[in-house]
């Protein structure tokens, strides 16, 4: 006879697949409820100029706090939000809150701070995406260049005929464009050259071993040289140690982001972190 699980449903005969589906549905239901209850938060992680050690911007990273005080990491629910289409609404919310935050930084004396926002492939493919970016820019009145959209290398390079025109349209709005997790995909260099992007973001897999003699650390060097060849600035993610910082400076990387400087912080803590940099 089937046993009861906590919800009083029979689960003995359920296959693993059905259980998996049920878990996903539960998570989706919880995510919907969390969005409606405005429980989702943005955390901010500084991006640092390697020239002078000052913050030039921050990346907004979504957090889903749960009652225990912990939070469900984005990797565990972004995919589901994409699958269900909820990411359109969520992504819009992220952009809006992030731009409002950047406007607050301006009011508080940090007008140069950029705000980087991650864009999901589902948002990017949504025909309304460019219009939604335009809407957020107008409604928050942020200077467009201060909004940086991060598109992963795999999305930028999927070769789909319309990636380039969409990036052109975004660029025409005046926003800054960065390619996230660079080095993990299979970029066609001639194609990359055509894309109107401003920045490459070295994936942390290639930062991890920097300062040691490893092949992966020389990939960071190649990415920086490639970026400069194409007239792009380069930022490294996952910077965790002074060794990383020194190695990145040596290869001419412009900017860095990682635990060495700060973990992603809630808005208030981020402001406290930022305070000493007021000019
Ligand atoms: P990502 O855009 O590549 O973000 C960088 C991730 O690396 C973040 O994880 C960040 O907390 C983490 N990180 C930062 N510094 C370090 C470091 O020094 N060492 C290590 N080991 N990790 C570091 P997080 O916040 O868990 O986000 C994971 C991914 O989820 C992000 O990767 C991004 O792809 C996605 N994501 C986060 N927020 C959003 C969002 O608002 N919208 C969308 N579409 N995706 C998001
Ligand atoms: Mg990112
Ligand atoms: Mg990244
Ligand atoms: Mg990454």
From TrEMBL:
Keywords: Phosphoprotein
GO MF term (any one): cyclic-guanylate-specific phosphodiesterase activity
Gene Ontology biological process: phosphorelay signal transduction system
Domain EAL residues, every copy: 24-278
Protein's recorded name: Diguanylate cyclase (GGDEF)-like protein
Organism of origin: Chitinivorax tropicus
């Amino acid at each position: 006879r089937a046993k009861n699980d906590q919800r009083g449903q029979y689960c003995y005969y359920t296959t693993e697949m059905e259980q998996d589906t049920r878990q996903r549905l539960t998570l989706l239901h919880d995510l919907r409820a969390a969005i409606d209850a405005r429980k989702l938060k943005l955390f901010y992680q500084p991006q640092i100029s390697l020239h002078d050690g000052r913050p030039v911007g921050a990346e907004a990273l979504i957090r889903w706090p749960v009652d225990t005080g912990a939070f469900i990491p984005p990797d565990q629910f972004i995919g589901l939000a994409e699958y269900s289409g909820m990411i359109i609404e969520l992504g819009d919310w992220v952009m809006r809150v992030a731009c409002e935050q950047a406007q607050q930084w301006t009011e508080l004396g940090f007008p140069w701070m950029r705000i980087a926002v991650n864009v999901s492939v589902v948002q990017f493919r949504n025909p309304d995406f460019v219009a939604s970016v335009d809407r957020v820019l107008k409604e928050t009145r942020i200077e467009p260049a201060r909004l940086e959209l991060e598109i992963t290398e795999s999305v930028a390079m999927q070769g789909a005929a319309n990636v380039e025109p969409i990036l052109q349209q975004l660029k025409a709005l005046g926003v800054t464009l960065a390619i996230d997790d660079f080095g993990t995909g299979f970029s066609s260099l001639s194609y990359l050259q055509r894309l109107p992007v401003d920045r490459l973001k070295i994936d942390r897999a290639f930062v991890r071993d920097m300062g040691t003699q490893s092949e992966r650390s020389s990939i960071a060097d190649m990415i920086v040289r490639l970026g400069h060849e194409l007239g792009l600035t380069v930022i490294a993610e996952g910077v965790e140690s002074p060794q990383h910082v020194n190695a990145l400076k040596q290869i001419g990387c412009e900017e860095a982001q990682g635990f060495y400087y700060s973990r992603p912080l809630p808005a208030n803590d981020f402001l406290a972190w930022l305070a000493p940099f007021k000019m």
